[in-house]
Amino acid sequence: MTLSIRPAEPTERDIVADLWNAAAAWLHEQGQDQWQYPIRLHAIEAAIADRTCWLVWRAPGDPVATVTLDDFADPRLWLPEDQPGAGRYVHRLVVTRTGGPIPDLGSAILDWASIRAANVGATWLRLDAWTNNTRLHKYYLERGFHLVRSVYGPDISSGVLFERRAGAILGVGPRVVEDGSDGTARS
C-alpha cells in the first residue's frame, strides 16, 4: 500500500483538528489523560502556515494521519548540551482509528520523518512523549528510538524525550510518499 503525504493547507485545518480530537477521545477511552484539554487551533494554524503540518492520505478525501515535523526544540525539555539544532522534532503524530486499520502506519510516518530529517542535514529525529503514557514509550523504543531522559515540572505533561538517528528506518508498514507540486508522488 502506498500513502500520500503533503503539507496541510489552511482550508484543511478542521481535518487536522478532527484527527486530533478523535485521537484525544480514543486516548480517554484507554484511560489516558493525554491531550485531554481543548484543542489548540492556533498551534495547528501556525504549523500549517509554516508548512510543517502534514496530512497523510489513503486516497483523495480519505485522510488517515497528521504529523508536524519541524525544528522546534522546546527549551524546557531540550538542553543546550543536547544540541537542539541537530534535530528535527515530531509533534502531534496522530493516526486515524476509523476506516479500517493500516498496520504500522505510525512506523511508516516515523520512517518518512527520519528520511526527511536526514535530507535537511539533521543528526537526530526527536520527540517528546506524554509522561505517564508508558505504552507510548514502549512504542517508540520498539521503533528504534532511545530514551534521552525524563523531565518533570508543574507545566510539563509531555516530558519523556526520545531520539533516533536521522535517516534510520524500520522499513515496515505502508510506503509513504510526498506529493510533488505537479501532483506526482515522490519518495
From TrEMBL:
GO terms for molecular function: acyltransferase activity, transferring groups other than amino-acyl groups. InterPro entries: Acyl_CoA_acyltransferase, GNAT_dom. Transmembrane segments: none annotated. PROSITE patterns: GNAT (PS51186). Coiled coil: none annotated. Gene3D superfamilies: 3.40.630.30. Residues 3-167 form the N-acetyltransferase domain. Signal peptide: none annotated. This is N-acetyltransferase. It comes from Paractinoplanes rishiriensis.
